[in-house]
Amino acid sequence: MSCEPQLTKRLGVHQRVTYYLGKLLMKTFTAKPETVKRDWYVVDATGKTLGRLATELARRLRGKHKAEYTPHVDTGDYIIVLNAEKVAVTGNKREDKMYYHHTGHIGGIKEATFEEMIARRPERVIEIAVKGMLPKGPLGRAMYRKLKVYAGNEHNHAAQQPQVLDI
């Protein structure tokens, strides 16, 4: 039995093929932050169910829809959400769903229903739902910054030439 030396050939940016004992060994691809290609997408939230929309947005912000997904690298795309005030919820959630925040003062817990949140700040409803589905920590915060939510039908990201994403 002769032990042949390991031979390595470079295929792409970060892919290698290794031959050991005459056998082909494939190496796992790992995305690097500087080589990730990010696209811009625009989504219309009119009539979409909040949870189903937020799930798909979080998945695309993380980059799990891509073949080069790597858990420790932000491989996701930029998402623009329009018509946040027209998002739908099922059942009695419009009256029953509560949102809580604290002012920072003693006894400063505040609550608002879904209807009150939609009336006051409709963007926050989608932002809160998506943020809860992203990883906690610096990587999750970087993913969250790629989400742009607008209450109306206008956005100021036309220079990025976003593609329409049908969810």
UniProtKB/TrEMBL annotation:
Domain of life: Bacteria
GO MF assignments: mRNA binding; structural constituent of ribosome
tRNA processing keyword on record: no
Stretches of the chain forming a coiled coil according to its record: none
Sorted UniProt keywords: Ribonucleoprotein, Ribosomal protein
A GO biological-process term: translation
Family of the protein in this entry: Belongs to the universal ribosomal protein uL13 family.
HAMAP family, per database record: Ribosomal_uL13
PANTHER family: LARGE RIBOSOMAL SUBUNIT PROTEIN UL13M, RIBOSOMAL PROTEIN L13
Stated name of the protein: Large ribosomal subunit protein uL13
Gene (UniProt): rplM
